[in-house]
Design brief:
The complex is a heterodimer of chains A (about 90) and B (about 90). With about 90 residues, chain A is of the alpha+beta class. In chain A, about 40% of the residues lie in helices and about 30% in strands. Chain B is built from three helices and five strands. Classes of the chains: A alpha+beta (about 90), B alpha+beta (about 90). Chains A and B meet through helix 1, helix 2, strand 1, strand 2 and strand 5 of A and helix 1, helix 2, strand 1, strand 5 and helix 3 of B.
Amino acid sequence: MTKADLIESVYLTTGFSKKESAAIIEMVFDLMKGTLQDGEKIKIAGFGNFVVKEKSSRRGRNPQTGDEIEISARKILTFKPSQVLKASINGEDA
Amino acid sequence: MTKSELIEKLSDEHDLLNKKDAESIINLVFGGIGEALADGDRVEIRGFGSFSVRERKAREARNPKSGELVKIPSRKTPFFKTGKELRERVDG
């Protein structure tokens, strides 16, 4: 499944044109990206939470050369699926 | 940001969407992704990330209270990999 499938289902259920449906789907993900870029988490009930986490710097190794290198501090995005989503993927009732 | 705040923001930013339309669209997006995953499909949203299903192997573990050995069956779990654009924006 890709964005095109989501655009198609917006088109089929709302009566918006394909072009407008595409703009709406873009807007949904742009809003989410902007929120996460600001470091704010997104909680979607029944689906899961997207959370930005700060990782402190640590020492690592280049697995190819074995050289020790410093891995800088960074922010990463994590997704924690909800119980409802996990249950449905396992064919269970939530 | 919660789901209802996302719905509100979508209807605020889009000239033609009232709150009810925005709500059905947000439900369609996450419901659609969830259904695809339940069917074992992979979902790829360019610039945002991809969702897939990973299998956790069956394992044996101990009940921490009773110390009893219990078998945990294999289980599927949703997995999200952040897309390049979003990964860079989050770390920016």
